[in-house]
Amino acid sequence: MEKIEFDYSKYDFKNSTSKYKILFNEGLSEEVVRRISKLKDEPEWMTDFRTNAYKFFVKRPVPEWGADLSKINFENITYFARATDKKTSNWDDLPEDIRDTYDRLGIPEAEKKSLSGVEVMYESEVVYNSIKKGLEELGVIFCDTDTAIKQYPELVRKYFGKVISPNDNKFAALNSAVWSGGSFIYVPKGVKVPMPLQAYFRINAANMGQFERTLIIADEGADVTYIEGCTAPVYSKDSLHAAVVEVIAHKNAHVKYITVQNWSSDVYNLVTKRAFAYENAFVEWIDANMGSKVTEKYPSVYLMEPGAKSNVLSVALANKGQHQDTGTKAVHLAPNTSSVIRSKSICLNGGRTTYRGLVKVKKGATDVKSSTRCDALIFDDFSRTDTYPYMEIDEEESTISHEASVGKIGDEQLFYLESRGLSELEAINMIVLGFIAEFVDELPIEFAVEFNRLIKINMEGAVG
User: Fold this and answer.
1) How far apart are CA 262 and CA 309, in angstroms?
2) What does pTM read for this prediction?
3) Nearest to 286, CA basis, from 117, 114, 65, 451
4) What is the band of 367 on the pLDDT scale with cuts at 50, 70, 90?
5) Which of 177, 325, 346, 446 could form a disulfide with 354 if both were Cys (CB 3.0 to 4.6 A apart)?
6) Domain residue spans in the chain?
């Protein structure tokens, strides 16, 4: 079979940085951390939060248990860039080059057709935010996290850093020190957001670090779906994306968090995502990882009170020179909680995928049910897939299962489909899309169409 080549042309375009309002020099220090806080005119408690996190970051070594991160040079990264002084809710008010970037990616059309609100982050800051007026009247808050600190300080301070502390891991500490932008969402008691909210994150400059901080709070009985998308142009030097996402689902709430990332092959994507699910709450992580040089991402749910549920469904696709080290954690801290973990991975042209997961059941958390299934599809003999499932079960009254399978696209499958009139590329697309069908089924229809199209682009070049 011919090697499959990725066509990144839709996403691989870049704008000049010459008109940026602020562009830090490369390098990280406590002075850089304090300068970011001062530029944002933050309260003292946030400055202290940042500097304490920086001190922890400096002390912690780069982890060696996962993908190879040894080539990250933190002194070669730019930690803050402000492309425009404008933050607007009117699309036409954006600078032309930024507006054109998102026009080419189809964001305005998605907003018109299928979204309750949109937030656009370019480099270090959110430049556009809108929310349907009917939701504002119901008390729904959807803004960037920088704005939330100023407009809703008590609400932010109550939850910020409570799900993921700055000393959780080295990259959570880095984010806590230099974070900028990201989404803040609060859905009041009993309110159901009828259509998804979306944020779109774009790295434009070379050697850029993007460190958004997202905080979602669903009050009792609330329901919200949030979708994020991520891209970056290709450079010869590495960029760093280290986000932190905290989700709080109160009693009977439902939060669905969908990520479709398509980073370029020079981005280190190192993200910490965690949710707390309280009594009878339901948290879903629907996660697609394509592109990037390295991804380390393990969305987790802590099932805090009886009746809490979680569902994590992830897809990872690794091409030549890429390592998708992904997985999830389900931590059962209360009785009658349940979790479902499903992982789909595809590797080709020497790419590597890794599933790394944890199911933990605390003593006294009786009647827990958890199931994990990991399926891998390998295109060739020089790609690699690994599965590292960890289970820490301290309660006998629990039902835990784990399944894993690995398969290859065989000549017989292709011959059968081609004998029915399909080209080799059409046959490959059909097999791949069938393999990840359950993931696509979880997406809103407009995003499922776009995701299918993205997969097909990635499969182009499969035949000579």
Assistant:
1) 29
2) 0.89
3) 451
4) very high
5) 325
6) 22-459
